[in-house]
Amino acid sequence: MKILANDGISKAGLIALEDAGYEVITTKVAQEQVANYINTNDVAVILVRSATKVRKDIIDACPGLKIIGRGGVGMDNIDVEYAREKGIHVINTPASSSDSVAELVFAHLFSGVRFLYDSNRQMPLEGDTNFEGLKKAYANGTELRGKTLGIIGFGRIGRSVARMALGLGMRVVATDKFVDEAEVRVDFYNGQFINVAIKTEPVEDILKEADFISLHVPAQKEGYVIGKAEFETMKDGVGIVNASRGGIIDEVALLAALDSGKVSFAGLDVFEDEPKPAVQVLMHPKVSLTPHIGAATLEAQDRIGTELAEQICSLLKP
Ligand code: NAD
Questions:
Q1: Catalytic residues
Q2: Which of 264, 288, 291 is nearest to 118 (CA)?
Q3: Ligand 1 center to residue 26 CA distance, Å?
Q4: Which of these, 93, 98, 169, 211, could form a disulfide with 307 (CB 3.0-4.6 Å)?
Q5: Atom of ligand 1 nearest to the CA of 225
Q6: What is the distance in A from the centroid of ligand 1 to the CA of 216?
Q7: Residue 241 and residue 110: Cα distance in Å, rounded?
Q8: What domain range is 47 assigned to?
């Protein structure tokens, strides 16, 4: 049976599938050729990340398709319900990248409290002529330890962020529309662990209490989660990170809050206007920036490949 991994697959996933007897094709087929390729090559499974779209047209044109697999979480590029109505399995790997996203959150937080986002811009320009000036400019950093981290959206990634924050000695407060309490397991390198139960609180309390806020909610149907009104209730000098979805934070309100000093820095991995983020956001001196790479680690890609392989083997087992 043939599997087309059109947006690539990790070596671990590839080996697991080949060991199970599947032929995995890693040729990148152009979007408009995908349906034709599936039919002429008898492909039973198509695996995608976010680049390839599997819409009604492909689903209708390819009656031999048994599984559509998304390596990662969001399935905006797949007509999921339609495929399922046609009897096609649609699978994804929601848990594989949580720790990678959580670590990126801390990359932004550490960058924020020690001004790395700005230092990395200024050192190449002035590092050799104004070393002492820059040293002074970035002198008043702060530690994360002992501060309060507010987590909005206490699902897989939110809990992974909580785990790391607890490990650093931070106080964690969390809010979630549907989760009242969650047990967060903090693992140590030597196999020891502790469980910490965290009760969620109303979002208003989190906004007031937190020194830093990290957002981990899915795309919302009803507007922003953080807009002008929410910024106003936050602590002065709060730091905020968004590695969830563009459109969760109102970027215009964020820029105003950064300019007024209400927010001391923002770490953004996702943007309202991806893949062409607003230039005012990209150029803002108090923003730490990454181009939607939360899940993009070798370890996460390995776990994604392996998790897809396991699901495929279990769904197709005779
Ligand atoms: P999840 O479903 O496990 O958790 C999301 C949580 O948010 C749920 O518990 C839900 O009840 C809660 N929620 C929904 N709306 C809310 C609201 N308005 N207020 C408070 N809580 C709300 O999802 P996850 O795996 O933790 O992923 C979280 C987000 O991270 C998603 O948007 C996902 O697309 C994004 N993500 C980003 C990257 C990246 O590369 N930056 C990678 C993976 C996932």
A1: 245, 274, 292
A2: 288
A3: 30
A4: 93
A5: 18
A6: 4
A7: 11
A8: 2-96+298-316
**Closest residue by CA, ligand 1 atom 35:** 244
Structure tokens at 24: 């995995």
Which residue, judged by its Cα, is nearest atom 15 of ligand 1? 217
Pocket test for ligand 1, best of 244, 250, 303 (most atoms within 8 A of CB): 244
Atom of ligand 1 nearest to the CA of 74: 34
Give the tens place of pLDDT for each residue, 59-112.
Answer: 999 999 999 999 988 898 999 999 999 999 999 999 899 999 999 999 999 999
Domain co-membership, 69 together with 211: no
* In a shared domain, residues 117 and 84: no
Give the 3-state secondary structure of 140-154: CCCCCCCCEEEEECC
Same domain, 123 and 216: yes
Give the chain's domain count.
Answer: 2
Q: Is 29 in the pocket of ligand 1 (CB under 6 A)?
A: no
Ligand 1 centroid from CA 142, angstroms: 28
CA-proximal residue: ligand 1, atom 9 (nearest) = 155
Cα dihedral 217/221/224/226 (nearest 10): -30
Same domain, 153 and 241: yes
Q: What is the pLDDT of residues 113-172, one digit of tens each?
A: 999 999 999 999 999 999 999 999 999 999 999 999 999 999 999 999 999 999 999 999
Report pTM.
0.91
Give the pLDDT confidence score for residue 74 in this predicted structure.
83
Residue 239 CA to ligand 1 center (angstroms) comes to 19
Top pLDDT among 221 and 209 is at 209
Are residue 64 and residue 176 in the same domain, yes or no? no
- Look up the CATH number of the domain holding residue 129: 3.40.50.720
Query: Quick one: pLDDT at residue 318?
Result: 76
> For residue 109, what are the CA distances in angstroms to 79, 103, 241, 242?
36, 10, 7, 11
* Domain identity same for 77 and 124: no
Same domain, yes or no: 88 and 122:
no
The answer to whether the CB of 151 falls within 8 A of the CB of 173 is: yes
Residue 15, C-beta contacts closer than 8 angstroms, at least 6 positions apart: none
Protein residue with least CA distance to atom 8, ligand 1 = 155
The predicted pLDDT at position 226 comes to: 98
